[in-house]
Design a protein that fits this description.
A 5-stranded mixed beta sheet has the order 1-2-3-4-5, with helices on both faces. The protein is α+β, with helices and mostly antiparallel strands. It has one domain (4-146): Gcn5-related N-acetyltransferase (GNAT) (Aminopeptidase), CATH 3.40.630.30. It has helices at residues 13-35, 37-43, 47-60, 107-121, 138-146, and strands at 4-7, 65-72, 75-85, 90-98, 126-129. The termini are far apart.
């Protein structure tokens, strides 16, 4: 499976939004199973709208974020957005998504590796990323681990009042 990693261009935005919604559907389904419908709706009232806005805002803010895309046969199949924080010499991965049809082929891992190299070239001393421990985030966790990240387990609790 041949793909290439390149920088985001404005014409990618619609494809990136659509692939990210497909990629994150299992994540939010997992959240709903874990939290139950009542708390889930309090925490994530309209995940598609929130994620669409997050992706669009991130991709458009070219001064704050760097966005990479994975392209295969002219189709955008993955994205990774990262931020360089010079103040603490940290690069932070903010978004990672690979279209479900293309997951488990090394695309997420390669996006991570390219981003980490760019962070290092920019003088960053540390890289970090936050992700979920649920089953919906398992593909992302695998790609982070394959790229050399070390996980620090954290837990967030919710309660219906």
């Amino acid at each position: 499976m041949y793909f290439r990693i390149r920088s985001f261009i404005d014409e990618d935005l619609d494809d990136i939004v659509q692939l990210s919604l497909s990629a994150w559907d299992p994540v939010f389904s997992s959240f709903k199973r874990i939290l139950g419908p009542k708390i889930y709706l309090m925490v994530v009232p309209d995940w598609r709208k929130l994620q669409r806005e997050r992706v669009e805002t991130t991709c458009k803010d070219k001064e704050k974020f760097n966005v990479l895309v994975a392209e295969m046969e002219g189709n955008v199949v993955g994205l990774l957005a990262y931020e360089l924080r010079e103040k603490d010499a940290t690069g932070e991965i903010r978004l990672l998504a690979v279209h479900p049809e293309y997951q488990n082929h090394g695309i997420g891992t390669e996006l991570n590796i390219v981003a980490l190299q760019k962070m290092k070239e920019a003088g960053m001393k540390k890289a970090e990323v936050g992700t979920g421990g649920d089953e919906g985030h398992a593909p992302a966790r695998r790609s982070y681990e394959k790229a050399g990240f070390t996980a620090l387990p954290l837990v967030r609790y919710y309660k219906d009042l």
